[in-house]
Amino acid sequence: MNKNLNKKKETSMRKILIIGAGGIGSHLIPALARTNMYDITVFDPDIVETKNLTYQNFDEAQVGETKVAAMNQSWNINAQPYKVLTKKQIKGYELVVCCADNLTIRQTLYKTENKWLDLRAQGRNGLLVSYEENKKILAMLNVGPDGSFSCQGDKWDGTAGDIHFTHIAIAGMGAQWIQRWFAGEDVKKNIQLSI
Q: Is 1 a member of any domain?
Protein backbone atom coordinates (compact mmCIF):
# COMPACT_ATOMS: atom_id res chain seq x y z
CA MET A 1 0.00 0.00 0.00
CA ASN A 2 2.44 2.75 1.14
CA LYS A 3 5.64 1.01 0.01
CA ASN A 4 5.41 2.77 -3.33
CA LEU A 5 5.89 6.23 -1.85
CA ASN A 6 8.94 7.95 -3.29
CA LYS A 7 11.74 7.44 -0.80
CA LYS A 8 14.58 9.85 -0.23
CA LYS A 9 18.06 8.52 -0.87
CA GLU A 10 19.04 5.98 1.77
CA THR A 11 22.01 8.14 2.76
CA SER A 12 19.75 11.04 3.75
CA MET A 13 17.42 8.90 5.85
CA ARG A 14 17.86 8.83 9.64
CA LYS A 15 18.62 5.35 10.97
CA ILE A 16 16.20 4.29 13.73
CA LEU A 17 15.74 1.03 15.60
CA ILE A 18 12.32 0.36 17.13
CA ILE A 19 12.10 -2.42 19.70
CA GLY A 20 8.53 -3.69 19.85
CA ALA A 21 5.73 -3.58 17.24
CA GLY A 22 2.75 -4.05 19.54
CA GLY A 23 0.51 -1.53 21.29
CA ILE A 24 2.81 1.48 20.96
CA GLY A 25 5.13 0.35 18.16
CA SER A 26 2.34 -0.61 15.73
CA HIS A 27 1.13 3.01 15.86
CA LEU A 28 4.59 4.65 15.94
CA ILE A 29 5.93 2.78 12.89
CA PRO A 30 3.33 4.12 10.41
CA ALA A 31 3.61 7.65 11.83
CA LEU A 32 7.37 7.69 11.16
CA ALA A 33 7.26 5.68 7.93
CA ARG A 34 4.79 8.10 6.31
CA THR A 35 7.40 10.89 6.50
CA ASN A 36 9.90 9.00 4.32
CA MET A 37 12.63 10.43 6.55
CA TYR A 38 13.66 7.28 8.40
CA ASP A 39 15.40 4.01 7.67
CA ILE A 40 13.46 1.93 10.22
CA THR A 41 14.53 -1.44 11.64
CA VAL A 42 12.05 -3.16 13.95
CA PHE A 43 12.77 -6.08 16.30
CA ASP A 44 9.83 -8.07 17.68
CA PRO A 45 9.42 -11.86 17.79
CA ASP A 46 5.72 -11.75 18.71
CA ILE A 47 2.88 -13.07 16.60
CA VAL A 48 -0.31 -11.09 15.88
CA GLU A 49 -3.08 -12.64 17.98
CA THR A 50 -6.83 -12.06 17.84
CA LYS A 51 -6.69 -10.36 21.25
CA ASN A 52 -4.32 -7.73 19.78
CA LEU A 53 -6.83 -6.51 17.18
CA THR A 54 -8.80 -4.25 19.53
CA TYR A 55 -5.85 -2.02 20.43
CA GLN A 56 -2.93 -2.74 18.10
CA ASN A 57 -2.62 -1.56 14.51
CA PHE A 58 -3.31 -4.92 12.82
CA ASP A 59 -6.28 -6.56 11.08
CA GLU A 60 -7.80 -10.05 11.04
CA ALA A 61 -5.91 -11.10 7.90
CA GLN A 62 -2.62 -10.63 9.80
CA VAL A 63 -3.44 -12.95 12.72
CA GLY A 64 -0.75 -15.64 12.92
CA GLU A 65 1.98 -13.56 11.25
CA THR A 66 4.87 -12.01 13.11
CA LYS A 67 4.10 -8.41 14.00
CA VAL A 68 7.12 -7.17 12.05
CA ALA A 69 6.09 -9.09 8.92
CA ALA A 70 2.59 -7.64 9.21
CA MET A 71 3.99 -4.10 9.55
CA ASN A 72 6.30 -4.70 6.58
CA GLN A 73 3.28 -5.43 4.34
CA SER A 74 2.36 -1.74 4.41
CA TRP A 75 5.51 0.05 5.51
CA ASN A 76 9.03 -0.25 4.19
CA ILE A 77 10.83 -1.44 7.32
CA ASN A 78 13.69 -3.82 8.00
CA ALA A 79 11.66 -6.50 9.81
CA GLN A 80 13.59 -8.52 12.40
CA PRO A 81 11.39 -11.18 14.08
CA TYR A 82 13.81 -11.61 16.97
CA LYS A 83 14.25 -10.52 20.57
CA VAL A 84 16.89 -7.94 21.42
CA LEU A 85 19.22 -9.80 23.74
CA THR A 86 22.55 -7.98 23.48
CA LYS A 87 23.96 -4.47 23.23
CA LYS A 88 25.56 -5.47 19.93
CA GLN A 89 22.12 -5.78 18.29
CA ILE A 90 21.37 -2.11 18.93
CA LYS A 91 24.66 -0.61 17.76
CA GLY A 92 24.84 1.55 14.64
CA TYR A 93 21.55 3.41 14.96
CA GLU A 94 21.17 7.15 15.40
CA LEU A 95 18.26 6.56 17.78
CA VAL A 96 16.86 3.46 19.48
CA VAL A 97 13.19 3.61 20.48
CA CYS A 98 11.92 1.11 23.04
CA CYS A 99 8.23 0.27 22.68
CA ALA A 100 8.58 -3.14 24.31
CA ASP A 101 6.65 -4.20 27.39
CA ASN A 102 9.66 -5.79 28.98
CA LEU A 103 11.91 -4.56 31.80
CA THR A 104 14.96 -6.61 30.77
CA ILE A 105 15.15 -4.90 27.38
CA ARG A 106 14.96 -1.49 29.05
CA GLN A 107 17.70 -2.39 31.52
CA THR A 108 19.95 -3.39 28.62
CA LEU A 109 19.14 -0.25 26.64
CA TYR A 110 19.70 2.11 29.56
CA LYS A 111 23.24 0.75 30.00
CA THR A 112 24.30 1.49 26.42
CA GLU A 113 25.96 4.54 24.93
CA ASN A 114 23.13 4.76 22.39
CA LYS A 115 20.82 7.73 22.13
CA TRP A 116 17.43 6.28 23.04
CA LEU A 117 13.80 7.04 23.73
CA ASP A 118 11.65 4.81 25.94
CA LEU A 119 7.88 4.88 25.35
CA ARG A 120 5.61 3.24 27.93
CA ALA A 121 1.88 2.88 28.45
CA GLN A 122 -0.12 0.88 30.92
CA GLY A 123 -3.83 1.45 31.15
CA ARG A 124 -4.51 5.15 31.66
CA ASN A 125 -0.87 6.07 32.26
CA GLY A 126 1.93 6.76 29.82
CA LEU A 127 5.56 7.84 29.92
CA LEU A 128 8.09 9.10 27.43
CA VAL A 129 11.65 9.20 28.81
CA SER A 130 14.94 9.83 27.02
CA TYR A 131 18.61 9.05 27.45
CA GLU A 132 19.08 12.62 28.77
CA GLU A 133 17.08 11.98 31.94
CA ASN A 134 18.82 12.01 35.33
CA LYS A 135 20.48 8.65 36.09
CA LYS A 136 18.76 8.39 39.50
CA ILE A 137 15.33 8.73 37.89
CA LEU A 138 16.27 6.17 35.25
CA ALA A 139 17.36 3.75 37.99
CA MET A 140 13.93 4.09 39.64
CA LEU A 141 12.22 3.35 36.32
CA ASN A 142 14.14 0.11 35.92
CA VAL A 143 12.93 -1.73 39.02
CA GLY A 144 9.98 -4.02 39.47
CA PRO A 145 8.89 -7.42 38.31
CA ASP A 146 10.23 -8.64 35.01
CA GLY A 147 7.89 -9.89 32.35
CA SER A 148 5.40 -8.48 29.92
CA PHE A 149 2.87 -5.82 30.79
CA SER A 150 0.02 -4.95 28.47
CA CYS A 151 -0.57 -1.38 27.32
CA GLN A 152 -4.07 -2.02 28.58
CA GLY A 153 -3.01 -2.47 32.20
CA ASP A 154 -3.43 -5.49 34.41
CA LYS A 155 -7.20 -5.01 34.93
CA TRP A 156 -8.17 -5.06 31.24
CA ASP A 157 -10.86 -7.67 30.60
CA GLY A 158 -9.99 -8.10 26.92
CA THR A 159 -13.09 -6.34 25.61
CA ALA A 160 -13.37 -3.26 23.44
CA GLY A 161 -15.69 -1.63 25.98
CA ASP A 162 -12.90 -1.33 28.54
CA ILE A 163 -10.10 -0.42 26.16
CA HIS A 164 -7.56 2.34 26.87
CA PHE A 165 -5.96 4.52 24.18
CA THR A 166 -3.02 5.99 26.09
CA HIS A 167 -0.63 3.87 24.00
CA ILE A 168 -1.73 5.73 20.85
CA ALA A 169 -1.18 9.09 22.56
CA ILE A 170 2.30 7.99 23.64
CA ALA A 171 3.10 6.79 20.10
CA GLY A 172 2.08 10.20 18.73
CA MET A 173 4.08 12.03 21.36
CA GLY A 174 7.05 9.78 20.58
CA ALA A 175 6.80 10.53 16.85
CA GLN A 176 6.69 14.26 17.60
CA TRP A 177 9.67 14.00 19.98
CA ILE A 178 11.67 12.09 17.32
CA GLN A 179 10.88 14.65 14.61
CA ARG A 180 11.89 17.57 16.85
CA TRP A 181 15.01 15.77 18.16
CA PHE A 182 16.29 15.05 14.65
CA ALA A 183 15.54 18.68 13.72
CA GLY A 184 17.95 19.73 16.49
CA GLU A 185 15.26 21.36 18.62
CA ASP A 186 15.07 21.24 22.41
CA VAL A 187 12.97 18.29 23.61
CA LYS A 188 11.85 17.24 27.06
CA LYS A 189 13.75 14.54 28.96
CA ASN A 190 10.45 13.00 30.04
CA ILE A 191 6.73 13.47 29.61
CA GLN A 192 4.20 11.80 31.90
CA LEU A 193 0.61 11.28 30.91
CA SER A 194 -2.24 10.17 33.13
CA ILE A 195 -5.81 10.28 31.87
A: no
